[in-house]
C-alpha cells in the first residue's frame, strides 16, 4: 500500500496565528506577575479590522493593557494595510473576572479541559519532526524572514 503524506504550515499573518499570538501575549503578561494564584483563560477572534479578546481571569491585574498588547502583536507581524492596520483596528476587550463557581472547582483540582494532542517523533529530520511538517514550517519561516527584511516588495 502506498500513500502520500503532506503537511501545511501557515505564516504568522494567518488569522489563527494572529489570534494565538495575541492570546499568548496576554497570558505572558499575566505570568510576569509570578503570582501562583493568578489564572487566565483567554481566547481571541480576528476579523477585518477588528480583534475581540474574551475570557476569564482570577486575581486583580491593574497593569494589564490589553489594547497595547494587541496593537504590539499586530504591528510586530507587520499588518499596516486597509482592512487590518495595527494603529486603527477596533479592539473589544471582553476579559472579565472568573466566576466564583468556576474558581471553586479550579482552586482545588484544576480545569481539566485543555484538549487532546497527538504526534510522534521520527528520524526523518534532525529535529525529530516528520519531514513534510518540518519542511513546510521551514519554508514559511524563510518567507517571513524575507518579508520582514524587505528583500522582496510584499
Topology overview:
Layout (H helix, E strand, L loop, with lengths): L14 H17 L7 E9 L2 E9 L7 H12 L2 E2 L2 E2 L4 E8 L2 H10 L21 H19 L5
Any key phrases for this structure?
single chain, 154 residues, alpha+beta, three-stranded mixed beta sheet, two-stranded antiparallel ribbon, 4 helices, globular
Structural account:
With 154 residues, the protein is α+β, with helices and mostly antiparallel strands. The chain has a three-stranded mixed sheet, with helices on one face. It has a two-stranded antiparallel ribbon with strand order 3-4. Helix 1 crosses helix 2. The N and C termini lie far apart (43 Å). 13% of the residues are buried.
Question: N-to-C terminal Cα separation, in Å?
Answer: 43 Å
Largest sheet: 3 strands, mixed
As a whole number of angstroms, the C-alpha radius of gyration is: 19 Å
Q: Work out the number of β strands.
A: 5
Structural class: alpha+beta
Side by side, the strands of the main sheet go 1-2-5
**Residue windows where pLDDT falls under 50 for at least 5 positions:** none
Shape: globular
Amino acid at each position: 500500500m502506498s500513500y502520500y503524506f503532506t503537511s501545511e504550515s501557515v505564516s504568522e499573518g494567518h488569522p489563527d496565528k494572529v489570534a494565538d499570538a495575541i492570546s499568548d501575549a496576554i497570558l505572558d503578561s499575566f505570568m510576569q506577575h509570578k503570582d501562583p494564584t493568578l489564572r487566565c483563560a483567554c481566547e481571541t477572534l480576528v476579523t477585518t479590522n477588528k480583534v475581540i479578546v474574551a475570557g476569564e481571569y482570577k486575581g486583580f491585574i491593574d497593569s494589564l493593557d490589553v489594547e497595547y498588547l494587541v496593537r504590539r502583536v499586530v504591528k510586530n507581524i507587520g499588518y499596516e494595510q486597509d482592512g487590518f492596520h495595527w494603529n486603527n483596528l477596533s479592539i473589544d476587550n471582553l476579559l472579565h473576572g472568573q466566576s466564583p463557581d468556576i474558581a471553586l472547582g479550579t482552586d482545588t483540582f484544576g480545569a481539566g479541559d485543555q484538549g487532546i494532542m497527538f504526534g510522534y517523533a521520527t528520524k526523518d529530520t534532525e529535529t525529530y519532526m516528520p519531514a513534510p511538517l518540518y519542511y513546510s514550517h521551514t519554508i514559511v519561516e524563510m518567507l517571513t524572514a524575507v518579508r520582514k527584511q524587505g528583500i522582496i516588495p510584499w
